[in-house]
């Protein structure tokens, strides 16, 4: 990872002892020394100048007296850090530190969360919930139309926290790394990365084409690896800067990761593998205070994964004959509802509560947490 991104993340962690600040990088070569910043009208008391070759150990001992603050990097530009994304906008506009700076409110106040596959379905609901709880949210998805619409909808609320869209293909390592880099430039770092993006194509051995199997593996299995690798690299910087700080990587897995699924082996296999990755990453990263957990939801009947009239699982399972005797989508739905002791499908709020538990419980890592209404019970 480029040293500049590490510096941005470190500055963010140093910017405030009370709340994780937002730090944003501005590659303005006209302001790359403290004297140039003062000449441009920035208050001298908020400016710190550092070398672009500064080490993380040197950054750890660096004293930043003010928040908001400005860190100038010769020949690179400058970083602004403030309690919230909205406050950075105020500073840029007024170049003043006399305003009353607003703090985001909620249980994720001041933190930054990336949600992949966030333009619709579970991902959208998760992103909306975290935004309402005060987080800066990165909406990462291939669907730039729906993703941008969601960001615009959230930012209309004019909250101290902000939403930001990044187009990302989780099956591509370079795309995921770019997602992380853009998130760092926009919000200064990542506190929670939720690997939610996934696809499902049902079918038995006779129907499944190798190309479809490979695509599902790339998205559902490799995608989690790419997210964990890129996210952990910057989270290690953040945990090094602050001794009592934890970061989280969370995979939205599935009940199909806990039990085999008939004529759905490509999806179930990747999800089983995801739990193996979760446990292995957890062992490796907990010494860095990075927790890794998987949430295993039951069937989300209300979302497009199931209810899309052309590609949804209801129509796929009906056509594949997965439910014996089913003659309609309603027959398929009733079949699956009857298997749940709670008598209904999983909802966004059920998953969000499980995610909050995983984040807020510092003594929990490497777990696959079922959210299935009793359909899957751990022994």
UniProtKB/TrEMBL annotation:
<dbReference type="InterPro" id="IPR020904">
    <property type="entry name" value="Sc_DH/Rdtase_CS"/>
</dbReference>
<dbReference type="Pfam" id="PF00106">
    <property type="entry name" value="adh_short"/>
</dbReference>
<protein>
    <submittedName>
        <fullName>Sorbitol-6-phosphate 2-dehydrogenase</fullName>
    </submittedName>
</protein>
<dbReference type="InterPro" id="IPR002347">
    <property type="entry name" value="SDR_fam"/>
</dbReference>
<dbReference type="InterPro" id="IPR036291">
    <property type="entry name" value="NAD(P)-bd_dom_sf"/>
</dbReference>
<dbReference type="GO" id="GO:0016616">
    <property type="term" value="F:oxidoreductase activity, acting on the CH-OH group of donors, NAD or NADP as acceptor"/>
</dbReference>
<comment type="similarity">
    <text>Belongs to the short-chain dehydrogenases/reductases (SDR) family.</text>
</comment>
């Amino acid at each position: 990872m480029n040293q500049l991104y590490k510096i941005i993340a470190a500055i963010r962690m140093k910017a405030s002892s009370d709340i994780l600040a937002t730090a944003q990088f501005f590659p303005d070569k006209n302001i790359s020394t403290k004297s140039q910043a003062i000449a441009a009208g920035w208050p001298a008391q908020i400016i710190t100048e550092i070398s672009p070759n500064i080490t993380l150990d040197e950054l750890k001992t660096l004293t930043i007296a003010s928040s908001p603050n400005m860190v100038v990097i010769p020949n690179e530009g400058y970083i602004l850090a403030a309690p919230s994304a909205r406050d950075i906008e105020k500073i840029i506009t007024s170049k003043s530190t006399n305003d009353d700076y607003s703090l985001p409110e909620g249980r994720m106040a001041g933190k930054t969360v990336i949600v992949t596959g966030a333009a619709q379905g579970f991902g959208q609901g998760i992103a909306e919930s975290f935004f309402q709880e005060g987080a800066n949210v990165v909406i990462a998805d291939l669907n730039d139309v729906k993703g941008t619409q969601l960001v615009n909808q959230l930012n209309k609320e004019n909250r101290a926290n902000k939403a930001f869209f990044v187009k990302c293909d989780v099956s591509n390592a370079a795309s995921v790394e770019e997602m992380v880099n853009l998130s760092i430039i926009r919000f200064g770092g990542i506190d929670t990365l939720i690997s939610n993006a996934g696809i499902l194509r049902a079918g038995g051995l006779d129907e499944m084409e190798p190309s479809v199997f490979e695509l599902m593996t790339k998205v559902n299995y490799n995608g989690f690896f790419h997210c964990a690798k890129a996210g952990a690299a910057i989270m290690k910087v953040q945990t090094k800067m602050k001794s009592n700080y934890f970061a989280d990587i969370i995979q939205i897995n599935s009940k199909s990761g806990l039990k085999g699924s008939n004529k759905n082996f490509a999806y179930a296999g990747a999800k089983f593998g995801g739990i193996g990755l979760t446990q292995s990453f957890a062992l490796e990263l907990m010494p860095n205070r990075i927790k890794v957990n998987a949430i295993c939801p039951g069937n989300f009947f209300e979302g497009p994964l199931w209810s899309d009239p052309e590609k949804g699982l209801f129509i796929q399972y009906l056509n594949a004959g997965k439910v014996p005797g089913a003659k309609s989508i309603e027959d398929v739905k009733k079949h699956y509802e009857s298997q749940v002791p709670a008598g209904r499908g999983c909802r966004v709020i059920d998953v969000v509560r499980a995610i909050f538990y995983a984040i807020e419980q510092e003594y929990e890592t490497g777990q696959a947490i079922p959210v299935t209404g009793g359909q899957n019970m751990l022994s």
